[in-house]
Amino acid sequence: MASSSVCRRASSLIVCRRAFHSSSVAAFPRRSAQHGSLPVEGGIDISEFRTFQDDDLPAGGHIDLRQKRDFLHYLQLIDHDVPRLTAFRKPYAPPTASVPLAVRSVDFAGEEHPMTPKRTVVVPVEHLPLKGDAALHTAKLLAGARWTPEPPKDSGYQNNATVKHGYIKISCEDFPEPAMNLKWISDTLDRLVAEANNPKKNGYQALPLDERHLEAKARKAKKGDHRRGRDGNRPSLKDFPKEWLPKSPPLNGASA
Q: Which residues does the UniProt record annotate as the domain Small ribosomal subunit protein mS35 mitochondrial conserved (predicted)?
């Protein structure tokens, strides 16, 4: 009698074991054992591979050889192309007032990276179209922590003694396209110059520059520049504008 289960009697109990499965995948090993391996279209039969005779490099060795071939390829490019590129070599000339901006970008050889759209602009304060010393001082006040007396690292500027008013650095990575980030920086610089040239803002020339960000940077570097006033004279009560002090009445009994 055909049945879907095989039963056996043990200890007066009937134990049944299922001999079927709802899926045909479980029966695949049994069919393969009976009828041999099933042919695979476009596959590779490993039985055709010969036994390894220790006469070839393993996969790691071939990877190392490929890297050395790439390195040799670039050495050949340097040997053959660099002499031809010397004809285009130009001596370094510091930026002039006609080219006040230095734009810095980061590229990862065509690979996508979150820093690729980022743009950074560094400009000397005295190269901006500012009107007078009051506008120069106001621009540095408005820049805040973005102003530094020395050029930032990787800014494209060298430490030039002729630059007396420092540098302003503005970065932007909020937009997906590099041109959009650069446009935002350009608009921000235009607004900063317009506010600094505003005659109503000239009253801030009595304010000292806030250099706490420079002190924090020197303290973080741990090179001793923050000790014993090596970072310059810190603002004190003597720098506070006297005209801002409230007028107090004279003390009783004081001589006129």
A: 91-244
In angstroms, rounded to a whole number, what is the distance separating the alpha carbons of residues 118 and 180?
10
d(CA 78, CA 84): 10
Instruction: Give the C-alpha separation, 251 to 99, whole Å.
Output: 60
Q: The whole model's pTM is what?
A: 0.53
Helix H or strand E encompassing 233: none
Give the torsion through C-alpha atoms of 102, 107, 110, 116, to 10 deg. -90
Tens of pLDDT, residues 2-60 = 444 444 444 444 444 444 445 555 555 555 555 555 555 666 777 777 777 777 888 88
d(CA 122, CA 167): 7
How close are the terminal C-alpha atoms of the chain, in Å?
132
Beta strand 147-148 pairing with 5-10: unpaired
Rounded Cα distance, 122 and 144, in Å: 14
How many angstroms separate the CA atoms of 102 and 153, rounded? 12
Looking at every residue in the chain, the average pLDDT score rounds to: 77
Among 98, 175, 210, 192, smallest CA distance to 136 is for: 192
Give the three-state DSSP class for 11.
coil
Architecture of domain 102-213: 2-Layer Sandwich (3.30)
Closest CA to 104 of 191, 165, 166, 167: 167
